[in-house]
Design a protein that fits this description.
Layout (H helix, E strand, L loop, with lengths): L36 H16 L2 H13 L1 H4 L21 E5 L8 H16 L7 E4 L5 H10 L2 E2 L14 E5 L4 H10 L9 E6 L1 H7 L2 H7 L1 H6 L3 E5 L13 E6 L1 H5 L28
Parallel strand pairs: 1-2, 1-4, 2-3, 4-5
Antiparallel strand pairs: 5-7, 6-7
Helix pairs in contact: 1-4, 1-5
Length: 285
């Protein structure tokens, strides 16, 4: 995730007053200093409560619910088949988060982590069923994530994860290559309807990119723009840089079924030979 600010403020106004977090700046914690796990978790919990009090949260929550298990869970077969012991169909779902960034030193990353936890709670995906990875995570941050109950991946998948069950991909302000890799790995009529992406608007990516470059280097994004459904999520002005340009992106099976079979045959793996400044940290060989 990108975090351009050296030092900035998030100004909060509610009914003519400022909250306790009216001025926020990146932490002074350096990589050499041990991270206080309990203190960091408490700070994230405070941000969760703060987001819940924001006007925009209601609209995000509505979109989450419309995109979550209750909206599109496959029907159970033979009574409780496919359900866990607790009977929750939502257990069929999972969540994957890439590119969150260093939340111990980035205010925006901390807010985005708080929003991820609210997302899981809203659409009733168990925290343990959310896998998370960013190569920049420190050992202290990994301890925080594990204490929160999240599953921390140990391998850089570069976004190339095949969805074998309905999956929410939480990709806030990630590079185009990560989205492109995810689309390539799931480029079929069977897999694309399983994925729900919460991340940068594909339509806005298209508008900001030269059509020739997008088609050449990020061909799966280029094609997906015409195939997906996007629902823009609102962002208050004081949250720009944190939640701006975010959409819920889905793929409807009936749209994909209308395309010729050649659309899906032998999709080539992206190589990015013409991208000297690739917006992704590659896997070490």
């Amino acid at each position: 995730m990108s975090d351009n600010e050296e030092r900035w403020q998030v100004v909060r106004r509610r009914k003519g007053r400022k909250s306790e977090t009216s001025q926020v700046s990146p932490d002074s914690t350096s990589p050499q200093e041990p991270l206080d796990v309990r203190s960091m978790i408490n700070r994230i919990r405070v941000l969760m409560c703060e987001i819940r009090c924001e006007d925009f949260w209601g609209k995000w929550r509505e979109q989450f619910l419309n995109s979550g298990p209750s909206a599109v869970s496959p029907p159970a077969k033979d009574g409780d088949a496919g359900r866990h012991d607790d009977g929750e169909a939502s257990q069929l779902w999972e969540c994957v988060c890439y590119g969150l960034g260093s939340f111990s030193s980035s205010v925006s990353s901390r807010y985005q982590l708080a929003m991820l936890l609210l997302l899981l709670d809203t659409i009733q995906i168990a925290v343990r069923d959310c896998s998370i990875y960013d190569p920049v995570f420190t050992s202290g941050e990994i301890n925080v994530l594990r204490e929160l109950g999240l599953t921390v991946l140990t391998e850089n998948e570069e976004g190339k994860r095949l969805a074998t069950r309905p999956t929410v991909f939480y990709l806030m302000h990630c590079g185009k290559a990560l989205y492109n890799n995810l689309l390539w790995k799931n480029w079929s009529k069977q897999c694309l309807p399983l994925i729900k992406i919460i991340g940068n608007s594909f339509d806005n990516i298209k508008q900001r990119s030269l059509a020739r470059h997008l088609k050449q280097d990020y061909s799966y994004i280029s094609q997906a723009v015409c195939l997906c459904q996007e629902r823009q999520l609102p962002c208050p002005s004081d949250m720009n840089g944190i939640f701006n340009d975010t959409a819920v992106i889905t793929f409807e099976a009936n749209v994909l079924d209308s395309l010729p079979q050649s659309t899906w045959e032998d999709p080539p793996e992206p190589e990015y030979q013409h991208c000297p400044k690739l917006e992704i940290i590659r896997r070490e060989n």
